[in-house]
């Protein structure tokens, strides 16, 4: 026994040491990559500079400047400037390949993150606020820098950013010429493909998407000029018809300064990475700033003279992979220590049998418990559905946040089979299970916090986007990630294993009840009605097997409640990193 204890300690210590080594490797790799990237910019004679612009409503818009060092020193506002607006969920560090090509041709590039994206704060306005944010960004650039020609700004924008750009070029006369990739010009067409409004609902900056003025409402033939539209015909996210109709709205057929290039067979993402599309863009900008002999009505011919500079921007995944592996090792090591020296000793002191009932009474109590909890589970879906239909038609805020929170609270007061009332049950939980929950939660919390600290530190060093874990959407992310799992835990606590299958049915039933009041149109993009029904059915199966995984792990950790955090926290971190913030 003594040898076993020593072995557990040695194994844990070994894993911790390896985790520390890998953490060091992660940091050193980040430092090395960061230095290499700064050297790259220095060797290419490029200034890399971050900037931040405070909006009138308090939001902070972050951006990155790329410009030739010689041009950076100019003070006569003569350097051609390009404002780059990236697509939804994209970051200011993205599209460096495009920025590089432009800088090598004498342009300065200001790449901007929209509100609610990456480091930029504030909730997304989904075209409602963003174009006017960019007006303030242009004001800032004009006041802060002496080299760019702010009065003749070029605009280079993609997808969601393209929708912002289509509006911006119409409302701000400083925009001289524009290139838009598959721009989100029509919210109505977008909502036909993706039922965004009912998924998200009303937020602090979005009331009804239908009420937001898009490019079709604001841009017209008189306030739009020098515009190139590039759209893949295979785009199923933003249909090509939106650019075709926008081109017609601007009377493009009868103008020489407006062009539409439909790229045969290219999807949304393929168009953004396509070299021919990039060459179209470069030729367009070259014409308006450096070479008026370029025939922009015949770009197919002109791009044969466009050469792309080879980009050797340093890349490496060592830092990210090392800290992920290190975090897993820390988790295993802490788990071994917690289970062997904290959880098991406490568990051995807990009485094995809890006040057994007479079999007949117990069965009656058990049946009543199932009926009460199931009724609460379904009635709450009905009540929150009605509430959301009146105040905020939102699947996210309603079904994934409000519904779990309210249901969870109600289920707290419905005791399990083995307790006479809810107070006795929770007194027993505090007495017997709280310490186990605390130890288990620490095994999850410590590696996760270490991961976030080191990952974000390294991201900053490597000139990459970090995980904005502390932001206005953190509570929303936690509620979405943990709410449903903990609600299901509260519903199923002390159920017989054979009855846990009820969850697959009751979860689907609750969702179907809710969407009576918050209808979600079928997604044509994903197959219509069949895909919608399939999603609803699979959701119950998914939550059931999440619960089964948690119950299996709880054999070792003795705390299924804390283990929901283990299962869901990686998804929460992914959600916070990838998705833009709407609150």
Descriptive report:
α13 runs antiparallel to α17. This protein has two domains: 44-305, Alpha/Beta hydrolase fold, catalytic domain (Rossmann fold, 3-Layer(aba) Sandwich), CATH 3.40.50; 358-442 and 454-578, no CATH class. Strands 1-2-4-3-5-6-7-8 form an eight-stranded mixed sheet, sandwiched between helices. It has helices at 2-43, 69-72, 96-103, 130-144, 160-171, 187-193, 196-200, 215-218, 240-249, 268-273, 275-289, 299-302, 318-349, 359-391, 395-412, 422-432, 434-461, 474-492, 502-517, 529-557, 560-578, and strands spanning 46-54, 60-68, 81-85, 108-112, 153-158, 175-181, 227-232, 258-263. It contains 21 helices and eight strands. α3 (96-103) links the parallel β3 (81-85) and β4 (108-112). By secondary structure, it is α/β, with parallel strands linked by helices.
CATH level 4 superfamily of the largest domain: Alpha/Beta hydrolase fold, catalytic domain
Briefly note the structural class of the backbone. Answer: alpha/beta
Total strands: the figure is: 8
CATH class of the largest domain: Alpha Beta
The side-by-side strand order for the widest beta sheet comes to 1-2-4-3-5-6-7-8
Order of helices and strands: HEEHEHEHEHEHHHEHEHHHHHHHHHHHH
Query: How far is the N terminus from the C terminus?
Result: 54 Å
Helix content: 55-70%
Under the CATH scheme, the architecture of the largest domain is 3-Layer(aba) Sandwich
> Number of DSSP helices?
21
Largest sheet: 8 strands, mixed
Percentage beta strand: 5-15%
């Amino acid at each position: 026994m003594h040898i076993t204890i020593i072995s557990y300690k040695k194994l844990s210590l070994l894993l911790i040491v390896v985790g520390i080594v890998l953490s060091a490797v992660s940091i050193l790799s980040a430092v090395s990559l960061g230095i290499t990237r700064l050297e790259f910019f220095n060797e290419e004679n490029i200034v890399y500079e971050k900037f931040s612009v405070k909006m009138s409503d308090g939001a902070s818009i972050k951006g990155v400047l790329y410009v030739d060092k010689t041009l950076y020193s100019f003070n006569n506002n003569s350097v051609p400037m390009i404002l780059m607006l990236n697509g939804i969920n994209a970051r200011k560090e993205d599209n460096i390949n495009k920025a590089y090509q432009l800088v090598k041709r004498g342009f300065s590039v200001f790449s901007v993150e929209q509100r609610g994206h990456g480091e930029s704060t504030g909730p997304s306005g989904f075209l409602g606020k963003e174009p006017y944010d960019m007006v303030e960004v242009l004001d800032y650039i004009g006041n802060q820098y002496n080299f760019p020609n702010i009065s003749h700004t070029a605009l280079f924008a993609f997808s969601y950013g393209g929708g912002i750009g289509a509006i911006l070029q119409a409302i701000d006369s400083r925009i001289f010429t524009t290139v838009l990739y598959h721009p989100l010009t029509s919210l109505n067409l977008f909502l036909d493909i993706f039922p965004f409004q009912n998924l998200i609902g009303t937020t602090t900056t979005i009331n009804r998407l239908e009420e937001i003025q898009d490019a079709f409402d604001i841009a017209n033939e008189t306030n739009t000029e020098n515009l190139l539209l590039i759209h893949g015909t295979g785009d199923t996210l933003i249909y090509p018809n939106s650019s075709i109709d926008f081109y017609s709205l601007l009377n493009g057929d009868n103008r020489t300064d407006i062009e539409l290039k439909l790229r045969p067979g290219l999807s949304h993402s393929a168009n953004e990475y396509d070299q021919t599309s990039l060459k179209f863009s470069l030729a367009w900008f070259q014409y308006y700033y450096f070479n008026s002999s370029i025939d922009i009505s015949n770009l197919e011919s002109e791009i044969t003279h466009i050469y792309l500079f080879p980009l050797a921007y340093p890349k490496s995944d060592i830092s990210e992979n090392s800290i992920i592996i290190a975090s897993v090792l820390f988790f295993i090591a802490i788990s071994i220590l917690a289970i062997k020296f904290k959880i098991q000793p406490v568990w051995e002191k807990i009485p094995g049998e809890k006040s057994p009932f007479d079999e007949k009474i117990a069965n009656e109590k058990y049946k009543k418990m199932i009926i009460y909890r199931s009724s609460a589970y379904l009635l709450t879906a009905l009540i929150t559905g009605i509430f959301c239909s009146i105040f905020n038609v939102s699947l996210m805020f309603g079904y994934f946040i409000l519904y779990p929170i309210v249901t969870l609270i109600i289920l707290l007061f419905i005791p399990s089979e083995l307790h006479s009332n809810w107070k006795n049950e929770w007194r027993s939980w505090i007495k017997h299970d709280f310490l186990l929950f605390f130890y288990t939660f620490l095994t999850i919390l410590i590696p996760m916090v270490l991961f976030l600290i080191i990952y974000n530190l390294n991201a900053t060093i490597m000139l990459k986007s970090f995980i904005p874990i502390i932001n206005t959407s953190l509570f929303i992310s936690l509620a979405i990630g943990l709410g449903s799992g903990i609600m299901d835990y509260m519903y199923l606590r002390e159920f017989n294993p054979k009855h846990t299958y009820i969850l697959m049915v009751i979860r689907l039933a609750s969702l179907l009840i809710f969407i009576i009041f918050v209808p979600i149109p079928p997604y044509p993009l994903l197959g219509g009605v069949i895909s919608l029904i399939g999603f609803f059915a699979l959701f119950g199966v998914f939550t059931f097997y999440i619960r089964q995984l948690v119950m299996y792990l709880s054999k070792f950790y003795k705390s299924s409640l804390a283990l929901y955090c283990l299962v869901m926290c990686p998804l929460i971190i992914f959600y916070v990193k990838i998705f833009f913030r709407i609150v």
